[in-house]
Amino acid sequence: MSRYWKNKFKRLAKLPIKKRIAEINTIRKALHEISPFKSEPVDCVLWIESEKIKANDYNPNTVAPPEMKLLEHSILEDGYTQPIVAWKNNGHYEVVDGFHRNRVGKECESVRGRVLGYLPMTIVNDTRLDRGDRIAATIRHNRARGKHRVDAMADIVVELKRRNWSVPKIAKNLGMDEDEILRLCQVTGMAEAFSDADFSKSWDIGFEENIEKIKFEDANGEIDSGE
Predict the structure, then answer these.
(1) How does 162-185 read in b/e, with b if 16+ C-beta sit within 10 Å?
(2) Is residue 134, in this structure, part of any structural domain at all?
(3) Which residue, among 107, 111, 25, 45, has the nearest Cα to 74 in the 3D structure?
(4) Contact assessment for residue 23 and residue 15, using Cβ atoms and an 8 Å cutoff
(5) Total domain count for the chain?
(6) C-alpha Rg value of the chain to the nearest Å
(7) Do both 186 and 164 map to the same domain?
(8) Taking the complete model, does pTM exceed 0.70, yes or no?
(9) Gap between the Cα atoms of 194 and 192, Å rounded
(10) Disulfide engineering: 15 pairs with which of 19, 148, 180, 215, CB 3.0-4.6 Å?
């Protein structure tokens, strides 16, 4: 390491903690701008004050209390190995992925103290701010590993439809097939909202006869994503 950088880092180490974190974030963003991996959000992980990170109001992913305790234990023992994924939104950051990592960092005193009230965060697709795009990004992050409540997923599908998303667009962005979308709408009684969609064959499929296609986790309204 050159003498220039050694001296710069020594000066940086002497700064008050909040100013030091801000300076390190600035350096990381500057490096990200010239990085060959600039298009990858994970290339730039920033430490953000937890109060500036807000949960979204649509996440259908659920974590049972034992798994939540395990996540807390994992972060206590192994540290944060994955950043929270978020969008910039009206002066704060809205969680896209990492809802429960966000909770642990705020609610567990030991973790909160260790990370000084900050949380690791990366910003995803900061040019796509439409709510529908944010919802779709959250579902894409969740579906490969999580469990979605049936009623919450149905509400999301209906909201996207009301935002003039076509059935093929919903299917593509949420990783679902069109029959699955119809069944979720039948849960809410909103199947008629999809009458303009080109899947007439679906109307002949009885929800009750095909309910087994949805893998229920338990009687609490949770559904395994099947992936």
Answers:
(1) eeebebeebbebbbbebebbbbbb
(2) no
(3) 111
(4) yes
(5) 3
(6) 21
(7) yes
(8) no
(9) 5
(10) 19
